[in-house]
Design a protein that fits this description.
The chain has about 260 residues and is α+β, with helices and mostly antiparallel strands. It is built from 8 helices and 9 strands. A 3-stranded antiparallel β-sheet has the order 5-6-7, with no helix packed on it. Strands 1-2 form a two-stranded antiparallel ribbon. Strands 3-4 form a two-stranded parallel sheet. The protein starts with a helix and ends with a strand. The relative contact order is 0.11. The model has no long low-confidence stretch (mean pLDDT about 95).
């Protein structure tokens, strides 16, 4: 609620969803308890924990970002990653790939974000790394790629998708990427679905039309279901464009929004 009070209107529409949460500059210290702990405030330790979740993981030596942060607006989904133990897909990778030690306990021997990351990126481990930006051969033979992610994803931090897209642009050039790749970041959506945003859409038809008819997806219609009924529709826009309200008509209807550069 505090995040929405601070940032919901930044996109011109008060709807409980942040269209572009990267614009929201929120410090959880505003919720720090003035007296005793309670349901409407955070302890000092909780404030610091929230700040860490809003911050990227960095290499302690080089200060280079390793893993992106969780963004404002995703708080109700934090339990996916902020429990008492690390997410199993990440801890299992270090246990069985990087350290090759089934007895490794991340709580007793935490990951070193410098030396252990270098170990994780050895050639024998990067066989499961899907971050290679060179999709030139795929693009040259007419391949089309649609990538999408939720801005409120608390399982896979959303900036990973954005950074990958940018790395492909850097590698291939913007013109080649425009002909072969689109990224759609879904406001308010969690991991693949869920969250407060519009999480129902048809990417399959979009890719079919692009491949078979040459019609690139410049906007994809999305909806949100509540109690078995659609209560909101919005366009999903190719990154870095965002859905912008025209200024009239219902803010729950996609027809009243256009995709434009932020």
């Amino acid at each position: 609620n505090a995040v929405l009070a601070a940032c919901d209107r930044l996109d011109g529409v008060q709807d409980g969803v942040l269209e572009d949460p990267t614009r929201c500059k929120f410090d959880p210290k505003v919720l720090e308890c003035k007296t005793a702990d309670g349901p409407s405030c955070l302890t000092k330790a909780q404030v610091e924990a929230a700040r860490k979740l809003y911050s990227p993981a960095t290499n302690p030596r080089t200060k280079k970002e390793i893993f992106g942060p969780l963004f404002p607006g995703s708080e109700l989904l934090w339990a996916q990653s902020a429990g008492p133990a690390p997410v199993s897909i990440s801890s299992d990778f270090f246990k069985y790939f990087a350290f090759k030690d089934p007895n490794w306990d991340p709580l007793k021997r935490p990951v070193n974000f410098d030396s252990d990351l270098a170990l994780a990126d050895t050639p024998e481990n990067t066989v499961i790394n899907a971050n290679d930006p060179d999709i030139s051969k795929y693009a040259e033979r007419g391949g089309k790629l649609i990538v999408y992610g939720g801005w409120s994803d608390a399982g896979i931090p959303p900036r990973l998708a954005v950074n990958y897209y940018k790395s492909v642009v850097d590698k291939l050039g913007s013109r080649a990427v425009k002909d072969s790749m689109r990224l759609f970041m879904v406001p308010g959506m969690g991991h693949c679905n869920g969250g407060d945003g519009t999480d129902t859409f048809d990417m399959q038809s979009a890719i079919e039309q692009w491949v078979e008819q040459g019609k690139a997806p410049d906007r994809i219609e999305a909806s949100r279901m509540r109690d078995g009924k659609v209560d909101m529709t919005r366009p999903l826009c190719p990154y870095p464009q965002v859905a912008s309200y025209k200024g009239s008509g219902s803010t729950n209807e996609s027809a009243n929004f256009v995709c434009k550069a932020p």
